[in-house]
């Protein structure tokens, strides 16, 4: 094998039973192979620990039933194999195997202490026919020790064999953890647990010298491990490896790094629609080599059918990084699909061009000015204030019509609005994989709440309307072992004041062949609007709970998903009279 990434860390782990809380302080961390300090938070114990005493063990997003689960007899067969003395403790060896094929279970052995019935040693693998993508093997070896009458982990080893495609190169992931210096019933001060972050990476943790590691490592590195650090750095200088790295980076980020500049997004270089015809777009942003505190971006686009230039530019920068405090400004003069879901492909995405169901004819020219300031009080809790000025102009023969004083049909050239937006988002225990500017959320086991308040200011920069809007959104996933997990999204909002339909909540449709979990996939764009609404989206993934029990279906490795969405909305009669709703729009 060729080593691509290696990390090690030394941490202090704290646990309090009542009220239950766990906290980890990473004292030292060492990473080779990745230029990303945020990886340090995932090298500790909290995010890679298999607790055999949990009824369900989460393995790469799948709930595996533990062999010592309360319902273990429904999923496992147990065999008494042997008895032996381990570290002076008399133990029974119990072998366990899944009762049914392709069930999310383990196969292996555990050694149970004869007096306390605690696990002394555990060796288990993911069942070979378990229905899980890209994982060939998941192996766990754990040793426990008795400290002052309680059993704690002593050694913990995990090995994962990732395989993207059969008979093709894959990846091994290995993690070895040792635990020592247990202190029991010696509580720390209450204020130590009062902070909202349950993981702390101490300042300078990634700057420890070799002498520190030699003195504080629980075990010495093997000869193979000692050579990996040097080998990892050597591999990164090989041209072929750098080429693959650049390709993967371009595909995942959408940008091609070119020194101080990043070209992209690559998937927007070319697109096509009925209004613009063929559209080309060139743009990019400054790279981390230019600055890790300030980023400038911009683009220019041209449609060969409407013969019109579009463009935009922006800036974002940090005031402080701890806490995360940013300011930014964006301007664009371009077309847009109003009300598109946050998960949908933008209309100028090349993928949307290929997989569009029907010709795109409903775009709006939008001049958009946004200035914002955001502050993250702690990881997962963010506030943001924005000043937004927008000018909506219909294109391609579409018009904003209204009934004049003489009952004749009049035309409105554009809609101008200015807003102040206040936004708050709370995601307890959320963790991120962070770049210098962007972050990818790795989720949380708690619901994610967000609330936004918009205030339209009439007269500000020729704004036409005064209104208030409040929106509440809740996203959550809860697991129901052994029948999978449920995702739901609850969204509700209301306008106070009268606004024309382009400013209302335009509920997201989908006109591509891709399923969008945040849109109504059988609905077209601009089909429904409202100024008072509530929606609920629910999907449950059974993870093969039923189909795995049917022999023919089991070979297909299909999984069951049930989903449903409902939306209730209305339009204030006074708002509906401001502009005439087009025929394609229903209320």
What is the element layout, followed by pairings?
Blueprint lengths: L5 E11 L4 E12 L23 E4 L2 E4 L6 H4 E11 L2 E10 L7 E8 L5 E8 L8 E13 L2 E13 L8 E8 L20 E3 L8 H7 L6 H13 L3 H15 L2 E3 L2 E3 L6 E4 L3 E10 L7 E10 L4 E14 L2 E13 L13 H5 L9 E15 L2 E14 L5 E4 L5 E4 L2 E13 L4 E3 L4 E3 L6 E9 L10 E13 L5 E12 L8 E2 L22 E2 L1 E10 L9 H6 L4 E10 L2 H4 L11
Parallel strand pairs: 2-12
Antiparallel strand pairs: 1-2, 3-4, 5-6, 6-7, 7-8, 8-9, 9-10, 10-11, 13-14, 14-16, 15-16, 16-17, 17-18, 18-19, 19-20, 20-21, 21-24, 22-23, 24-27, 25-26, 27-28, 28-29, 29-32, 30-31, 32-33
Any overview of this molecule?
The chain has helices at residues 72-75, 210-216, 223-235, 239-253, 350-354, 551-556, 573-576; strands spanning 6-16, 21-32, 56-59, 62-65, 76-86, 89-98, 106-113, 119-126, 135-147, 150-162, 171-178, 199-201, 256-258, 261-263, 270-273, 277-286, 294-303, 308-321, 324-336, 364-378, 381-394, 400-403, 409-412, 415-427, 432-434, 439-441, 448-456, 467-479, 485-496, 505-506, 529-530, 532-541, 561-570. It has 587 residues and is mainly beta. The longest helix has 15 residues, at 239-253. The chain is globular. The chain starts with 5 loop residues before the first strand and ends in an 11-residue tail after the last helix. The model has no long low-confidence stretch (mean pLDDT 89).
């Amino acid at each position: 094998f060729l080593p691509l990434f290696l990390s090690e860390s030394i941490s202090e782990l704290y646990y309090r039973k009542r009220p239950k809380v766990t906290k980890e302080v990473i004292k030292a961390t060492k990473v080779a192979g990745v230029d990303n300090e945020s990886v340090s938070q995932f090298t500790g114990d909290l995010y890679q620990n298999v607790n055999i005493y949990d009824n369900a063990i989460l393995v790469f997003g799948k709930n595996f039933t533990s062999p010592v689960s309360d319902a273990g007899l429904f999923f496992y067969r147990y065999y008494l194999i042997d008895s032996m003395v381990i570290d002076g403790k008399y133990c029974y060896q119990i072998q366990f195997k899944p009762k049914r094929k392709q069930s999310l279970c383990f196969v292996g052995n555990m050694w149970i202490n004869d007096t306390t019935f605690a696990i002394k040693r555990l060796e288990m693998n993911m069942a070979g026919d378990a229905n899980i993508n890209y994982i060939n093997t998941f192996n766990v070896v754990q040793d426990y020790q008795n400290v002052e009458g309680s059993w704690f982990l002593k050694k913990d080893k995990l090995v994962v064999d990732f395989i993207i495609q059969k008979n093709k190169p894959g990846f091994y992931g290995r993690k070895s953890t040792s635990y020592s210096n247990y202190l029991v019933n010696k509580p720390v001060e209450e204020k130590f647990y009062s902070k909202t972050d349950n993981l702390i990476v101490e300042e300078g943790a990634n700057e420890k010298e070799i002498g520190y590691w030699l003195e504080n490592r629980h075990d010495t590195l093997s000869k193979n491990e000692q050579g990996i650090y040097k080998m990892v750095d050597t591999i990164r200088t090989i041209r072929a490896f750098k080429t693959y790295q650049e390709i993967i980076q371009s595909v995942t980020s959408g940008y091609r790094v070119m020194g101080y500049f990043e070209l992209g997004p690559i998937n927007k270089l070319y697109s096509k629609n009925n209004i613009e015809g063929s559209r080309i777009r060139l743009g990019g942003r400054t790279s981390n080599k230019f600055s890790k505190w300030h980023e400038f971006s911009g683009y220019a686009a041209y449609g060969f059918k409407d013969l019109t230039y579009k463009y935009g530019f922006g800036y974002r920068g940090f005031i402080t990084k701890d806490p995360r405090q940013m300011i930014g400004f964006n301007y664009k003069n371009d077309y847009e699909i109003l009300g598109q879901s946050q998960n949908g492909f933008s209309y100028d995405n090349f993928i949307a061009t290929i997989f569009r169901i029907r010709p795109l004819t409903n775009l709006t020219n939008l001049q958009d000015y946004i200035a914002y300031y955001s502050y993250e009080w702690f990881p997962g809790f963010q506030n943001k204030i924005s000043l937004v000025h927008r000018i909506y102009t219909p294109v391609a023969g579409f018009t904003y019509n209204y009934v004049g004083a003489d009952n004749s049909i009049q035309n409105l050239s554009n809609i101008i609005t200015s807003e102040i937006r206040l936004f708050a988002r709370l995601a307890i225990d959320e963790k991120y994989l962070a770049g210098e500017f962007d972050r990818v959320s790795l989720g949380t086991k708690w619901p994610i709440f967000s609330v936004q308040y918009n205030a339209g200011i009439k007269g500000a920069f020729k704004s036409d309307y005064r209104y208030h809007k409040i929106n509440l959104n809740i996203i959550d996933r809860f697991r129901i072992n052994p029948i999978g997990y449920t995702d739901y999204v609850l969204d509700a909002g209301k306008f106070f004041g009268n606004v024309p339909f382009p400013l209302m909540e335009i509920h997201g449709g989908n006109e591509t062949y891709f399923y969008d979990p945040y849109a109504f996939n059988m609905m077209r764009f601009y089909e429904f609007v409202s100024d008072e609404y509530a929606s609920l989206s629910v999907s449950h993934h059974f993870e093969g709970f039923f189909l795995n029990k049917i022999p023919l279906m089991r070979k297909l490795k299909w999984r069951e998903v049930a989903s449903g969405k409902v939306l209730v909305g209305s339009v204030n009669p006074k708002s509906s009279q401001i502009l005439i709703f087009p025929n394609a729009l229903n209320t």
